User: Fold Single-stranded DNA-binding protein from Streptomyces rameus.
Amino acid sequence: MNETIVCVVGNVATQPVYRELAAGSSARFRLAVTARYWDREKNAWTDGHTNFFTVWANRQLAVNVAACVEVGQPVVVQGRLKVRAEVREGQQQWASADIDAVAIGHDLARGTALFQRAAKPEGTPAAPRPEPNWETPPPADPQDGRPQQQDQPKAVMT
Assistant:
């Protein structure tokens, strides 16, 4: 319940690595996020510190990432943040910030994309859904609230 959900905007730093595992599809890539700020002394935008995240995608999201995400593309990633640190002999060796992605998309503020719905897996076709009734119901009788009977066209005998 107490997970840290983040939304991060950055650039894909490494080519996504896709794997088919017993538990399902998995993909990962590194995401570079660089802060930018306005430097008043230089009167220009300046790059700040760059944070790197390892983004993990599973199942259909992994398949879609492998198909359309490339190095250098601007993306938006939403998911659960997990920070790990390894300590050996009392010394911190390294720290890693991972995002278990729920959603990944191209940043349309910096470019365009063409969306294509993922193909459904082969299998039994879905049962056809019945056609909805598009006719509007007759207006309610102001006296009792029940729908009024509409006059039916009379058959003409000749």
